[in-house]
Amino acid sequence: MREVVEEEKRRDEAENRQRSEENLKHFQQPSTYFGYIAGTSTRGLIAIMLGRLKLTVDECIEQYEIIGETIFAHPRRFHVQNKLWLCSKFDWRNVEGALTQVVNKYAPNGLNQNDLGQGPWTKFREQVTDGEHHCKTVAVAVKDNGDAVTTYLFRSYVHPVISGQYYALNPDNIGCEADIVDVARATSAAPGYFKVFEVGDHKFMDGGVQADNPATFAWREVVQMARNNDTNTTAGKAIACFLSIGTGKSKYEIFGRKVQSRAHEAATPYFRFNVKEGLQDVKLDERTEKNRKVRNDNTEKEEKISMSTLAYLQFVTEAYLASKETMVPRAAEVSVMDEVQRCATKLVDYRRARERISLSTTNGNAT
User: Catalytic residue positions?
Assistant: First the structure.
């Protein structure tokens, strides 16, 4: 978000415009810029923190590190999985406790301490005021139906049941009535690591089991929601910009290419950032200091350096951002940071256009 904030400041300076500290913080919140934020598994947790709880990126990173330390620092000593004894590697109570602390920490201002953990604000469905910008959040999970499993979308909003929709994942709105913590547990209940999580009478597990890259589901969801209001809405009109962030390239990268082609057909600006190498073999619960292969830019050779998991993640991500890559839809190799800046410029364009429309509407109503 640094590039987004800097772009906002540049434009404010050009317009000789002053903003309050509160407004400046809004520029650090992805929810200020996006209409939808979706994720699955641990990325589902990130989607919830950025979209539903309105955290800044820095706040999200801080809380993610705390959650990881709380959960993964204490594996069960015995977590053998077989037909006779099913025992997940980590205790779900640690997950619930860590997530509850995050939700309580970012409770609405003015909420009485005795009210923490209860009330409508703890529900995944967000209470919003008509007319205000509202970032919708989608956490993807897998629902266990007994004889089969299906991809399931937990929504922070109501998806109305419209007859004749060409494709609709569970427009039943059961999920949006669940607690934020329960949705977070459902989307991240990775088999072997955590036990299957129950919300009401339904069983859920990690969304990555079926939708490790939920880009296609997100695209369909946004288009459907737009067409609920206007059946003639095109995908290009429904989605002004699509940003997809991966967790390291793998052999399953092909699953995200459908959205690339759809964005191209709809003339929708599409951005995909995904670290090319170094993250593929990092395990979900890895948090160790160990020797890791890194490339020395001075000698152009690989070396082994002792790094913690978080330090390594940061290292390979920064290396990726400093590199060049062939970006979609352009065939030419471009600087990744140039593409990040292009994305930031688009996001600021859209937010400012929305701001102008809002001010125009407000002034019109006032007169």
Answer: 41, 206
